[in-house]
Structures are given as structure tokens and as C-alpha cells.
Amino acid sequence: MASAFPKLPGFVPTQEIDKPNFRKVSSNKQEKNREVNHLPNKEYVVPRKQPIQIPPQSGMFNPDYMSTTHAMHLPKNVTNDSEELYQPSWVKMDRHVLRFSGYFKEAVVESALENYRIRKITICYYLEDHSLSITEPKQENSGVPQGAFLKRQKVLRADDSKTFILPEDFKINQDIIIYGKTIRLYDCDQYTREFYELQGIPQQSSFVPQPDFFETKTMTKFIPQKDTVMKDYLEHKLGGGRVTSQKQFLENDRKVLKFYVFSDIEYILHYYLADDTIEIKEINSANSGRVPFPMMLRRQKLPRKFSLNQPGQTYAEDFIRPQDIQFGQPLIIYNRKFLINGCDQFTRQYYFDKFNVDFPLGGQEEYIQQERSNIIIPPHNGIGDEQDSLGYIYRLQPKPPKKDFFKWVDNQVNLRFLAMFNTNKPEDKDRVFVITFFLNDDSLLVYEPTVRNSGIPDGKFLEKRKYKNINNNNEFFTPKDLLVGNEVVINGWKFNLLDCDDFTKKWYAQNFI
């Protein structure tokens, strides 16, 4: 029988690798080589048989369809004994694989970080045809190609015996040479151990190989330790952060203790009970000769002792509390003395209820400058929004007027009315208009529908904006001013309200009746 291997150098597994020439051999030697190639494989006692998997015939054209196995072609009405008797070795050993874990050292040149690297591999030995395959698990940023290390094939032993590697050659804690690579085996799976125990050659216990520099330094992930104190410091420095106690914030939100203190001039000290922060304000008065500056100390937690520590090294228990502020006693704030002269009524009641201390009232109040304005507001010229125009009167750089957001969201409703001109002009008395009132911003829009052959252009008659009702003290129009049957004057035009739609009737019935 002819050999399946091509007669080319490097493709015949039984040839001598170190042979310098490839001359023809005699026919007797070729017959011996053929017999070696076609000898039946050795059968072994396996721990357990593979379950028979007969794939269903439905879905054969599906790309994920299970591949065909020997179980599909088993004869029917045949006992297991006769079945095993006539099965070839490659059927009995089908899907029985021995799995080993090993490693080999590889030199690393021109690197200041490492001299060698331990490359871990997985060897799968197939009892079906005594072939093996080697794969290398992929490592992140390893710098070497990993994955399929050796494709499935028969491998000759390294002892020049011209025989293939057999299961007896694999032993834990011993070396095996595969194509010049000396591989040390250090582990195998449970099925492989059971297989060798049945053969009478149990494997040794597994061990963990010594890690190399790349695995210890590069692959070891650094787990940073969270510095909660530094994080809280940075958040508060940026104006954020959260209160340590949520209960404290909910119970004391918008509760502020007010003290009157004196250093070189009078100051006001605010203590916020919600987060235990303190701020100091200057008392500015007219013609005081001082530059009006809003804050002496911005809002922050005040440490008991001032020291130049690293950020985040001042802990919560070192901050000043309300019980540390006493009448007549100096309060040291960043090496500056502030004398407590009094407090307001709320602070006095808080100290009496909390600490049973009668804190006296007193102190200089903030100077409130009287608003003196000689600004004469001119009448609106009718161009644009009146609130928008007033911004140029009160400020040199006007700001846009603020709109009522909640009113805008909650009142997305329009009221529509049918109206006609209240006039005696023959060309205008038959004109019909639709007046729309927008509840979200109290604006009006007057629209004239299309009338064929009227000679009057249709479309928008009055722009959508807020209009004043001259019959109601020049107040802006409200839904109460728009009632069916009444006469309204909008921007100098007199309209008679004739009718409204069904939704407007229901809305008026629910809100004004």
C-alpha cells in the first residue's frame, strides 16, 4: 500500500533528520517503513467512556450544526460486547485526550528588565492517533505571539529511536523534549490522573512553577488604596463634597447660628449646622473709608489648631463645634483672635435648648443701604417684550428676564376664541379672527383665517407676546378678561368674542364656575 506522505524532504516522519542526503533506498527498507506507518495504535484502558452523541438530522444546513461522529454510523441491534469487539482502536480511543500543563524557559536578550521568561503551555495528547498539540495561553502585553504553539501532529522522540511519543513519556515534575524544546510538566487534569492510575503508573503531585520577573512585576495588578480623607478634602476644595451624616443635613438644613464678633472691626460669624462649616462676613457701611469686601473667611470647616499639615490630614474630630463658641471668650481662627460679643434670637434659643446656656443678645447689625432711585421709567413703545426692555433701564448690561419654569411646564394649554372686529367699516366688519391665549406665559396670538376672494391677506394679524388690557388698569391679559360676549381691546384693535372651542368651554367650566 502506498504511503500517504509525499516523497519530499521534511515530509516523511521516519526519515533521519540529520541525514545530509536523500538518496533512494531499497524496496525492503521502504516496506519496513510502510509497516511502521500502518501499525495499529496501542489501545489503553480508559477511566470512562465518552457518551454517545447522535446529533438530530434537523438543522443539518445550520452553520452551528454538530459535526458528525462515529456514533451516527453504529449498526442497529448489536450488543455492547460485540460492538467493542469489532471496533478499531481509533474508534475506541475517539475523544479521549490527556491534558498536561508545562513550561519552558526562554532567554530574553537586550532587555534591562529581565534575563529570561517562563512560558507556560498546555499539551493535549490524543489517544486516537497518538498525536499531540500545544497551545500557549495569551498574556496581556507579553510582546510575544501566543496561542497555537504546535499544531496537532505526531512527534518523534528525541532519543533517535525513530518512534513517536507515547503516553508513557509524560510524567509530572520531569522534562520532555519536543522539537528541541525542553518542557517541564507541572500539572495535569483529573481525567489524566485517573488514566495513569489504571495503567499502573500514577503521576506525581502537582506543583506551582516559579514566576518570572514579567509575571511578578508586569502582570500583577496594582490595587490602589482609596484615601477617603484626601477625596473629601479635594471635593470640598472644589465646592462640592457631601455631608458625613445625612441625618445631620436633613435635620439642620437652612439652620444657621449667627454671632457678632470683634477683631479689629465688627464682623458677623455664621455657623451652618447642616455641615458644621463657618464663614465670617465684614460689616460694610457707607463712608466707612474701607473697601467693601464681602467675606473675611469663606465658608469652610474650621480646625481647632492651625498647622501646615498635608492636605487631608486634618480629621473631623479636630473641627470647632457649637459648644466651643462661648460668650466673652476669644475664638482663635487661623492664629487670629475674634471676641464673641453676642448672637441673634435663633442662636440664643438654640443654645438654651441644646446646652442650657443663656447666650446674650447684641452686636452690630449689617448696614442696609436705602434704595434711592430717581429713575423715570418711560412708557413702553410697543416694540418687543416690556420686561425685556426694562432690563436696559435697571442695568448697564441687561440680563434676560427670568421665566416661571414651573408655570411653563404645568400649563401647556391654549385657549382659542372666535372674534370679529367691532367697527362700522364695511370692509372690516365681516373679517373673522382666531385669538389664542397661551396659559404657560400669558401671551396672545391673533390669526386671520383665509377667505377666498376677500382681497385681504390672511395669516398672522398680531405677533405672539403679552398685551396689556387698557380696560383693566393696563394689566396684562388674563383668562378672566377673555369671556365670550365681551369686547376686548388688543393693541388698539377692538374685538368682539363670539365663540370658543369645546376644550376652552370645559376649561372655563372647571376653573371659573
From TrEMBL:
GO terms for biological process: cilium-dependent cell motility; mitotic cytokinesis; mitotic spindle organization. Residues 94-200, 253-355, 411-512 form the DM10 domain. It is found in: Cell projection, Cilium; Cytoplasm, Cytoskeleton. InterPro entries: DM10_dom, EFHC1/EFHC2/EFHB. GO terms for molecular function: alpha-tubulin binding. GO terms for cellular component: axoneme; mitotic spindle. Keywords: Cell projection, Cytoplasm, Cytoskeleton, Repeat. The keyword Cytoplasm applies. PANTHER family: EF-HAND DOMAIN C-TERMINAL CONTAINING PROTEIN, EF-HAND DOMAIN-CONTAINING PROTEIN 1. This is DM10 domain-containing protein. It comes from Paramecium sonneborni.
